[in-house]
Every structure is written in structure tokens, then in C-alpha cells.
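#lab-general

N.A. 3:47 PM
ok so I finally got the sequence cleaned up, no stray characters, all 334 residues accounted for. can someone with queue access submit it? mine expired

B.Y. 3:52 PM
send it over

N.A. 3:53 PM
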Amino acid sequence: MAIRDRKLDHLRIALSKDVQFKEKTTWFEKVLLEYRCLPEIDLSDVNLETEFLGKKLRAPIIVSGMVGGIEEAKKINKDIAKACEALGIGFGLGSQRAMLEDAKVSDTYYVRDVAPSIFVAGNIGVTQLKDYSIEQIEEALQAVQADALAIHLNAAQEAVQPEGTTNFKGCLKEIARVASKLSKPVYVKEVGHGISYAVAKELAKTDIKAIDVQGAGGTSWVAIEALRAGKSISKELWDFGIPTASSIAECRKVFKGPIIASGGIRSGIDAVKAFVLGADLIGIALPVLKAQQEAGSKGVQKYLEKIIEEMRIGLFLIGAKTPKEASGRGRLYL
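B.Y. 4:20 PM
back already:
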């Protein structure tokens, strides 16, 4: 019941309160794209197809995991996954801790009936890894027919959450254990406060296949937990974290695998700026959830189509035929 109540609180607060960073931004406004008024390509030449962990995506987008384990999550997940299937993009599930503790809620995560072919990522928190065997994690992924496991890192959130798990000792070792033994690819993601150069350098020594930076500037999980607990916190704590643009650039220096840029991505031009800094894909969460609440699966699809169209135009305007070609066609001005 405690997990269910917490998840309901998270959903309610995210949809009804202002949980965005107050003053800190993604820093995408500091990224200047190299506009090429003679791009020497046709707009129709732009190809957004991307391969990620063995699956082809028609556009380099993953809708980040948000909800699961509560009845309200069932329609949300199916609506979003249905839109992702129509667009050929990836979909991430919310934390599967609830179904690991109670198999009866597994159906709130299951989307393969509406999204049979797209990339789907399972999800577990890093501090929970030590609580479950490889066999238990494998079973959780099989139950939802996931293609990979995303391990979320959320120290800032846990520190403010009243019942938070704040013992992060040995977590790097656990990531290495799971990444080396699981039959599915494993990647690591933050939840909205960014991944640093130092952490990325350590993660690069493991067998993880990708990093999702989920940087600061979008939704603050510190804010959500503070509002949930009725705590008064400083704007510095509310805004704690590494701006998304900076996190991408820092992770790219030491991690050779795919980097997902998420945390405050609000337009296709933000996505192009992320590609310029070295990201391979983008992730979006809260705006997709709000689109689903307003107009169901069709609302999600319409919102994401707008992002994809802007992404295509943005790449054309810097003369890049693919997201990979965008790398270096601009710079971060600090």
C-alpha cells in the first residue's frame, strides 16, 4: 500500500503542481547551432532512423519511464505505448519495484498487446538491485517482454523523500554485477538531476550499454518529493543537479556507447542541440504524460509528431542528414 500511495502522490503532484526547476535551466539556450543557409541537402534527405540496443527506431526518441504498479498506470502506459508503436519510437516503463514485490500488479506495466514491435525498457532503482537476484530481475523483464533494463539513479530524490532509501553504498558494484550477468542489455539513467563526468567515467568501466543523462532543467524530483512531504526547501536544493546540456557533454568525454539526452527536452530544436553535443537519442517524459491526460493516445502522437518534425527541420538547417552527422555542428557557450 505504501508504494501504491507514493506512486499516486507522484502522479498527482506531477500533473497538478509546478515541479519544474525554478532558476536552473537545461543550458540548451547556451548551445548555438551552426545555421547553414546553404545546407547542400534536401529536407527529404534527413533520415531519423536510429538503432538502439539491437532495435531499430524510426526516430531517435524514447518516452522515459514514468508510472506503473497502480491501476491508473494501465491506461497511461497503453495510451503512450500505442502512440510510440505508431511512430516507431522507444518506450520506457516506470519502476518495476511494485511488481517485483507483488506480481498481481504486473498488468499495469504490460503494453505488448498495443505495442508489439517497438523497443521497451524495463526499470529498477539502483538501490533495489541488491534486494533481487538476477533470476528475479529476468522474470520481471520477461513478464513485460522488455528488450532491455534501465537502472535508475536517484540519490537527490531519495534524500528528500520521507521514506527514501539513502544507502547508496556498493551501488556501482551492483550495476556491474547486473550488467555482466543479465541476458538483456542494461543501461543507466538519472531521473532529472544529471550524470557527471566522474560518475560516467566509473560507469564506463562496467558492461552497461548506454547512459541516459536525465539532466537538470526539466522536472525536479526533489521538488516533487518536497511538495509531497510538505517540506520547505531552498531554491538551491529544488534546483540541484547538472544541466542537461552540460551532462551530455561531460558524459560524452568518457563514455563511448549511446547517450540519451533527457531532462527538459521541450522541442525538436532542443533535440538537435543535444545531438550537436554528442547525444544519440532523446528522452521525453512529463510533456508526454500531460498530452496523454489531455487527449489520450492521439494527443501523445500529435505531440511527438511535432517534436519529430522540428527535429527533422533542425537537422536540415545545420546541413546534417542524420543525428550522428549533427555532432559538432554548434557549440556550448559558457
